[in-house]
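HUMAN: Ready with one sample?

ASSISTANT:
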Amino acid sequence: MKSRNVVRLFFSTLLLGGISTLITSFFVKSDAYIKFLSPFDWFELLGLLIFFLALGFVFSLVSQMGFFAYLTVNQFALGIFRGFWPTIQIGLILFALFDLVYFRYKSVEDGTITPFLLTAIALLVYSIIIARIKAKETNQRAFIPALFFMVVITSIEWVPGLRTNGGDYAWLMIVPLIICNTYQLLILHRLTEKTKATKGR
């Protein structure tokens, strides 16, 4: 892939992470905005907007590091495990989903397992949809790697958010992570195809 496309991917993902986090903050951290709306304090409000935008940039960088780390690990794993790699990926997907439910539930003293179960199911369903789109646009062998990336890598990237007190920052983090991961996964083959088409001229 050309360096121009790499730069384009970096900045477009960065912008996507910042904007998605900012929009999410309007819902997740609405109380923080309300505090500066009555009475209206434009300076503090502007600072809050910049804070969440910058936080989104950080989440985007986490997403991009996870994406390129996965691309590297995937190439090594294909060389080492060969035909067993898809099976190993399925096992890791199941473990990641189990971790999202059981270990998070065990870390909470009071409460029900239902929210954790629904979170894992929602992530799995969304990941299957994105993986099917990826497989349809490329080839069927891309389904499991795409599913692995969306479930396992997203879960790993989400760990800092899950460890925070309260659920606000956990939800504030997962939205841009999912959006950025989806964007990178679905745009990569388009950028590489453009590079091949340019070389073929």
Observations:
- The mean pLDDT is 90.
